[in-house]
UniProtKB/TrEMBL annotation:
This is TetR family transcriptional regulator. InterPro entries: Homeodomain-like_sf, HTH_TetR, TetR_CgmR_C. It comes from the Bacteria. Pfam families: TetR_C_28 (PF17937), TetR_N (PF00440). Residues 29-48 bind DNA. Keywords: DNA-binding, Transcription, Transcription regulation. One of its GO terms (molecular function) is DNA binding.
Amino acid sequence: MARPKTIDREKVLECAEQVVQRAGASALTLDAVARQAGITKGGLQYCFGNKDDLIAALVERWIAAFDMQAALHGGPDASPLARARAYVRVCSQIDDATRARMAGMLVTLLQSPRHLQRIRQWYAGWFGLDPATSPDTDPAQAGRIRTLLFAAEGAFFLRSLGFIDMAQAQWDSVFADIQNMLSTPAPAM
């Protein structure tokens, strides 16, 4: 087989995900990814450096994919409430490939704790709906939004990790409930 003139980083990252999905995070080696991608280990190292850099690229790819989907649903300059609705919508759209990707990502992160900081930063950005920086959101609404984001994230992880198994209609109903709660004004206190 002829060697490609350039290495397609996205294709290599897809191959890395396939390795993790098929054989688990412990199988994520430069040799395995290079084989899956049909490139040399040297070419892979030239493109990504080392395994740790490959994992960092995977994390950034997962974050970018989620954020892109959320931006499509939330629109530009979305309010905290619109951002929360977009977040919940993206969490609700889990499929088998996403479920496998998330399980692989979690196991990979456990093996490489250095990358947890990037994930923590990303979550802080989503869950840090601070009313002081968003004057159109009152504190009660901000707390409600944060709670519903946690509910969506919890459901997403429970299903991703296979801890719950539910029919698609039931899954859709759970997320419709969360979306309805986001659309209902917070009760007066």
